Structure prediction request, 325 residues.
Amino acid sequence: MRKPLILLVVIALVAGLGYGWYRSQQEDNGPLLLYGNVDIRELSLAFRQGGRVTELAFDEGDQVKAGQQVAQLDEEPLRNALNAAEAGVAQARAMLARLEAGNRPQEIEQARDNKLQAQAVFENRSREYNRLRELARTGATSQQALDAARYALDEARARLAAASATLSLLEEGPRQEDLDAARAQLEVAKAEAAQARTALSDTRLVTPSDGIVLTRVVEPGAMVQPGSPVYSLALRDPVYVRAYVGEPDLAKVAPGTRVRVTTDSTDTSYSGQVGFVSPRAEFTPRSVQTEDLRTELVYRLRVVVEDADEQLLQGMPVTITLAGP
Prediction:
């Protein structure tokens, strides 16, 4: 009974030592190595307006800084459009000011005098008509004369009504609807002027980021349409590295993991950290070299390089080193 028990203890001890040796060998494999390429991030620069290109400030291979003007369109047509739009604003503002100021006192006084004159004419013709009507009852005047007096009275009554309405309109001033319409027209004119001003500023093409000119698509004198590419830039900041990791090592490259990036062309190493790990598996791309089979499913990850310099070129193959578990 004692021999089998001792034998079992020995076997368990040997198994434990073997497992410990296996784990030590696994831990002594060194840091995990990944292989990838500096990600090529391109930016296509284009005008929002169409027109004739008058200036291109950079050529292929030149470095540009954020905020630098890289191209210019002929601005004369858009400047003329802006001048016309600003004149429209001035006209609309003057129309609104005229309505808000109301009618001049001289105009109101003139309308009041016209009403008094029309009132006097109406009263005079009213008396004349009444006189002829009395005479017509006794046969002292003709029916033709009475009809003429009645027509003259009706005309005087209409002129008095027109003069009264004109005076009332001048005294009341413009309607609220007319004021609202004039204010709306002024806002429309301002919006058109702002649009023309934006279009004029869009004749200057400015780069939003630091980069290197990859392609100069057009030359000075060319006519371009809105959105037509003028330059193609390779962005420099931030610099990303695209790499792939197999499923067994996926837990070692969680976002935020610190890494070192090296190249074959220089002895310089760069600091970085894993910024993104794809949640979807894919087959290893042909452009990526790994130590495992090419048919193996891998996960794409992106490394953000924190201290990149001019030697870390777009598309360059790199080695990524990170500590094991």
The first strand starts at residue 32 and ends at 38. Residues 105-138 form the longest helix (34 residues). Confidence is low (pLDDT under 50) at residues 18-28.
